[in-house]
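Long-time lurker, first post. I've been practising inverse folding by hand and with some scripts of my own, and I keep getting stuck on stretches where the structure tokens seem ambiguous. Below is the full token string for one chain I'm working on. Before anyone asks, I'm not after the true native sequence, just a reasonable design that respects the backbone. If someone could post their per-position residues I'd love to compare against what I wrote down in my notebook.
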């Protein structure tokens, strides 16, 4: 009687483990019905076990997906608001882990190819900058979510304190626009203080012609007008040395500028100066990479995010208006040296405070 495939494999495997070569005694001068080499025996064992494991894995995964879909369907029908939080939480973690993978990919490429940060393409440079900030803020959230059933605590935090405790991955599109507008209103509160500090310190400028140009520029912006790029270039030399250079600016003026970059001003003066300079140089390199790419290559979300990082909340603007404003910004920063990045920081007020026209306003 012929052996079944499974029984045959089991018997041959036992024979191989015992170190005895399998042989079948000929009967009546006839050849044995089956003859397997050691290689075929090994393949038989390998494929039978691996296929079984894969089959079990597929079955388990399909059951998990089925249970998860049932659970989501139940939440969607019975608790729609909680389902929205749950869905945002799950999708947010997917985006967060994808960003972490991108971060690792970019860092690996920089190490292998010996690439400096300022030599990266614009999108890689911007992603690296944003991921670094997101991951720092996300660490407490990830730590809270590790214990069993702790994700329900995260849901509570998402519901009551989404802006304070969560990063953009865990915000709904509506929350994203709302929080961006709120954060921009916080930094807009410091616009007038920056302008008054600029005008007041301008009296220290010894060159009468430059002093007059700077005063006219400040008065123009304070009166609600939008300055020209040429007017900013005309006073550019004042921002490389005293009294507006990064190493010469007053601590009070630096503290007014900190909220424009969402930095805390409650640090010693030398730390405030160092952090401002670091962020300004990073933004300058980002502008250079963007100029190489071309603003027209940005998607709409990338375009609005680029404006927001540079001081303009573009949620109420058309795409053409965003392109126009970003083009003006790049015209200012494209000629700046690292020693003149103070003008870049002040341009976050000078170029964004009165940029017209907003939708619904004329």
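-- Answer (accepted) --
I ran through it position by position. Result:
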């Amino acid at each position: 009687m012929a052996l079944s495939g499974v029984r045959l494999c089991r018997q041959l495997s036992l024979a191989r483990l015992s170190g005895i070569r399998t042989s079948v005694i000929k009967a009546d001068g006839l050849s044995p019905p089956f003859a397997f080499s050691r290689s075929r025996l090994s393949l038989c064992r390998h494929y039978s076990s691996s296929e079984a494991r894969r089959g079990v894995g597929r079955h388990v995964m399909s059951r998990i997906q089925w249970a998860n879909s049932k659970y989501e369907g139940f939440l969607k029908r019975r608790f729609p608001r909680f389902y929205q939080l749950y869905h945002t939480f799950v999708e947010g973690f997917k985006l967060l882990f994808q960003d972490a993978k991108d971060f690792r990919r970019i860092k690996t490429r920089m190490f292998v190819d010996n690439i400096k940060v300022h030599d990266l393409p614009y999108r890689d440079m911007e992603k690296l900058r944003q991921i670094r900030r997101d991951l720092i803020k996300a660490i407490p959230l990830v730590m809270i979510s590790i214990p069993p059933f702790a994700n329900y605590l995260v849901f509570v935090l998402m519901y009551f304190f989404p802006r304070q405790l969560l990063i953009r991955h865990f915000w709904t599109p509506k929350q994203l626009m709302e929080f961006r507008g709120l954060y921009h209103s916080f930094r807009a509160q410091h616009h007038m203080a920056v302008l008054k500090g600029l005008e007041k310190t301008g009296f220290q400028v010894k060159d009468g012609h430059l002093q007059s140009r700077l005063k006219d520029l400040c008065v123009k912006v304070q009166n609600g007008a939008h300055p020209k790029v040429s007017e900013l270039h005309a006073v550019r030399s004042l921002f490389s040395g005293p009294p507006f250079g990064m190493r010469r600016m007053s601590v009070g003026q630096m503290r007014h500028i900190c909220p424009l970059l969402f930095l805390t001003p409650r640090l010693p003066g030398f730390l405030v100066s160092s952090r401002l300079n670091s962020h300004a140089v990073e933004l300058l390199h980002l502008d250079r990479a963007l100029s190489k790419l071309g603003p027209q290559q940005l998607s709409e979300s990338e375009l609005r995010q680029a404006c927001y990082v540079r001081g303009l909340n573009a949620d109420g603007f058309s795409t053409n208006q965003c392109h126009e404003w970003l083009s003006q910004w790049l015209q200012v920063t494209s000629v700046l040296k690292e020693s003149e990045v103070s003008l870049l920081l002040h341009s976050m007020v000078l170029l964004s405070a009165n940029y017209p026209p907003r939708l619904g306003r004329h």
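A couple of notes from the structure itself: The chain has a mean pLDDT of 81. The radius of gyration is 32 Å. Happy to go over any region you disagree with.
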